Amino acid sequence: MLDFEKRLADYVERNEQELVGRMADLVRRPSISSSGEGVSECCDFIVERMRQIGIDARRHEVRPYPVITGVLGDDPKKKTVLIYAHYDVQPVGDLSKWRTEPFEPTVIDGKMYGRGTADNKGPLAAHLCAVEFFLREYGELPVNVKFLFEGCEESNSAGLQDFINEHVDMLKSDITYFSDGSKNHNDTPIIALGVKGMLYVELRLTTMTRDLHSQYAPVLPSAAWQMVELLGKIKKDGRCLIPGFYDDVTPITPQEREIYDQLPDIRDNLKQTYNAYPVYDPELGYYGQLNGMPSCNISGLLSGHVGAGTATVLTSTAMARIDMRLVAAQDGEKILRSLKQYIRDLGYDNVEVICHGITPPSKTPIDTPYLAPVERATDAVFGKSMIYPNRPSTAPDYFWTSLLKTPTIQVRWCDFDSDNHAPNEHLSLNNYLRGIQLTATAIHEISKMP
To answer: Which of the residues 69, 200, 284, 401 could staple to 289 if both were Cys, CB 3.0 to 4.6 A apart?
Structure first.
């Protein structure tokens, strides 16, 4: 192991400029799945890059955006690792809030700024660079590696489930491994064994044919107030009131609680970063509530006059977007039906419920034998790590655990303040280079398993 670690560290140090350039090459290529800008061109660039490394890479015409697969090695005596990543990114948003051009990767104070640096082009580039290390230094990999890179993760992974169902044999592996997400706020990498699902809905409430002067407020209905009242009936005092919402929540196991109880107190870290302390049930604890309980969040709210000036209007329409993060074994379809019925039962026949996507929750048992080698690899590269039996965010893990029937482990090593989805997204070069070492070390450790 020591010889391997030194050889890997020397390789990364010797080739640092080239490795950083690999990430920059990806970041400067737009690939916005919500609009389609640059997605196809970025896909072709990655396929060519993989072929240059020596990977048997293919582009698959999946709607709406192509999927990339790759294969390197087919030795039946070796473990097979499926590496997942996504190459699409979020829109850039308000350009005036960026300190650099979003698609012109720029290094400032040891951090590369640009859309996709952390989510998820930096980790994607790191995986490929790790594989290239083995080929350059050893001539082969100690495991078989398969790749699946998608171009629609930021748009609910449209089309990916059908593709996987049609290619189960091609994607068969012993473990799925990926890196998509930030460290804990105390700057410690997170090894996650599960994810929350998500139900994302939009409520559209209409009271009249158009907005009016607010002089009519005493006698005509306000869409804004009705929406506020409805939202107060959906969630109150931190608890979601949709009937049956908590019925299928799987309680935290004693093993999971033991892990959570060992994790560090980060209340002060959150206060320093966001100027707010967390609020949680003391019986569950911070990590138990963050990772083990579902949530019901208002992510958007709009009604009436929102521009400049002081116009006074009586609103005729109101819109609210709600994302519900679900834990095993909650069913998004079931909760959606319950929400629609609940709104009808409350008498809101003027509300349309639009579903913008359902992602099922997913979980790999913490007794999986693949946890130990990944934990050893993470500790060797980053010095320490922490385990999340379930992480608080959402990813299409169920594709791997439910469709491919493989254990799935994710290591989150990007900057804890990387500003994913926001202006000034960035990734420190130090974390990126260690991310390369982590993928290589994880492969090395998995190869030694019986």
So the answer is: 284
